[in-house]
Here is the input.
Amino acid sequence: MDRYCVFGNPIAHSKSPEIHAAYAAQTGQDMQYERRLAPVDGFAEAVRAFIAEGGKGANVTVPFKLEAARLAQALTIRARAAGAVNTLVFSDDGIIGDNTDGAGLVADIVNNAAVPISGKRVLLLGAGGAVRGVVLPILEHRPARLVIANRTVAKAEELVEQFAALGGEGVVSACSFADIDGQYDIVINGTAASLSAEVPPVSPSIFAPGCLALDMMYGASPTVFLQFAARHGAQLRDGLGMLVEQAAEAFQLWRGVQPATADVLKQLRDQL
Ligand code: ATR
Here is the structure.
């Protein structure tokens, strides 16, 4: 039976084994998917041990996504742009690194929320790893404009410089939270502020009528950012859909089959 796993530290909380088991059952794929706790200083060894045991691929989560990008012998274009890897394929030619996080976010917006990105004004809050990973997949959907706002503006400017050459020229720009100009159809919170129950200090005037507000975090109740967005008329989405969709992308990469995600998303939602 083909074996897969998710590496992280900590890893006990990971929902990936449950998600992939559901996809495997649904598509009739004969595979096994487990959690692997890798020591903080022993990620590469843990990957090599899994390959030696016959592992075919793996997901990678905190804190190993950057190290996974260095370990891979080849990177997909989107993994290179993200500077991070969440999916590894162990092929005869070596370790291939991909990043399905951004495609997962885009699939959740376009397919699950049924909000097209094409022609829309998109605002990304944050400029860390989570945001870097979603810029290219968003640009591929041709938004009218993509603004990256961050507490540390220089980090947002670095991203603009990087993505100008990857289809973002004239579309992507950077600013501070205080300098966000105009209204947006899609506002995505990719900052770590929700972890400490904080809201990035943005004006409520950023939400265009009918705006979609999405937080990459999720929990049993809406994040403080989503509560703020709800008070200003936005429709809400948390990061659970992104989680389920990034897993579907990885599953497709490994098995060549696209799983249906709606029932799995509902099952996870009911368990929160
Ligand atoms: P990740 O890989 O999860 O994106 P990261 O690279 O550490 O983590 O990035 C965290 C992001 O959240 C950054 O954009 C950070 O802003 P700075 O670049 O100015 O540090 C942002 N962030 C963290 N805490 C925040 C808060 N309380 N308010 C607003 N932004 C915050």
In short: The CA atoms of residues 220 and 271 lie 9 Å apart. The pocket of 2'-monophosphoadenosine-5'-diphosphate is lined by residues 126-130, 150-152, 155, 191-193, 196, 198, 200 (CB under 6 Å). The first strand starts at residue 2 and ends at 8.
